[in-house]
Amino acid sequence: MTTTTAPTRTVDGALLPAAGAWEIDPGHTDLAFTGRHFMVTKVRGRFTGVTGVVEIAEDLRDSRVDVTIDMASVESGNETRDEHLRSAELFDVAIYPTATFRSAEVEWRGTRGTVHGDLTIHGVTKRVPLEVEFEGYVRDPWGGDRAIFSARTKVNREDFGVTWNVALEAGGVLVSKEIQIEINLETVLNNA
User: Fold this and answer.
1) Would you say the pTM of this structure is higher than 0.70?
2) How is domain 2-189 classified at the architecture level of CATH?
3) Most exposed: 27, 56, 128, 138, by fewest CB within 10 Å?
4) The pLDDT value given to residue 191
5) What gap in Å lies between CA 189 and CA 148, rounded to an integer?
6) Which of 74, 84, 109 is nearest to 181 (CA)?
7) What are phi and psi of 111, to 5 degrees?
8) What's the DSSP call for residue 174?
9) From the CA atom positions of the chain, what is the Rg in Å?
10) ∠ CA(70), CA(76), CA(188), 5° rounding?
11) pLDDT band at residue 21, thresholds of 50, 70 and 90?
């Protein structure tokens, strides 16, 4: 049974956002990634240019996610590394300025679910599962309704044609193939 009260509703005992278009707030969204350097050290980075919409449907399985990532907005805390990430050896932002994620299927139970979607990076599209959790709702001081989500997945960067690496003398490679992705997403209900 679903009871709807804007901007949230209760579905099977779980408080969730009401149906509608929830637009991503880029200034309060963190799309972070972690890889390994020398196969040991964790190196973290993030993208600051993230836009899109989470379209919540009455039936949560019909919800949609459409996100665009400005690949040039990468920040890792080291400008030299950031320039290398933007270069033709890695993200090649001159040719592939954006990455996208578009949902294809949503499984949802309570406040958690899996959003299966098509992730396109470096001109290559692969189906990726995002493990998503609804973290809560707040009304901001300006009257905006905000829904907060977190998500995570991992990808093999080489599956997307991002293959640059250096073999290490002692074995292994300089940069890990597996990349962890963690997202903290703040959205604002579009009442238009």
Assistant:
1) yes
2) Beta Barrel (2.40)
3) 27
4) 79
5) 11
6) 74
7) -105, 10
8) S
9) 18
10) 45
11) very high
- Taking residue 182's Cβ as centre, other Cβ atoms within 10 Å add up to 16
Domain ranges across the chain: 2-189
Read off the tokens for 93: 């932002």
Q: How far apart are CA 168 and CA 37, in angstroms?
A: 11
Q: What is the pLDDT of residues 125-177, one digit of tens each?
A: 999 999 999 999 999 999 899 999 999 999 999 999 888 776 656 666 667 78
User: Each residue of 50-67: pLDDT tens digit?
Assistant: 999 999 999 999 999 999
Please write the tens of the pLDDT for every residue from 85-94. Answer: 999 999 999 9
CB atoms within 10 A of CB 163: 12
Check pLDDT > 70 for residue 49.
yes
DSSP state of 173: B
Please give the pLDDT value at position 39: 67
Looking at the chain, list the stretches that DSSP marks H as alpha helix, in order from N- to C-terminal side: 79-86
Question: Which residues does 101 contact at the CB level (< 8 Å), separation at least 6?
Answer: 52, 65, 66, 67, 69, 117, 118, 119, 120, 128, 130
Mean residue pLDDT across the chain: 91
Rounded to whole angstroms, the Cα distance separating 169 from 190 reads: 54
Model pLDDT, residue 60: 93
Contacts of 85 (CB under 8 A, 6+ apart): 45, 74, 76, 91
d(CA 159, CA 124): 8
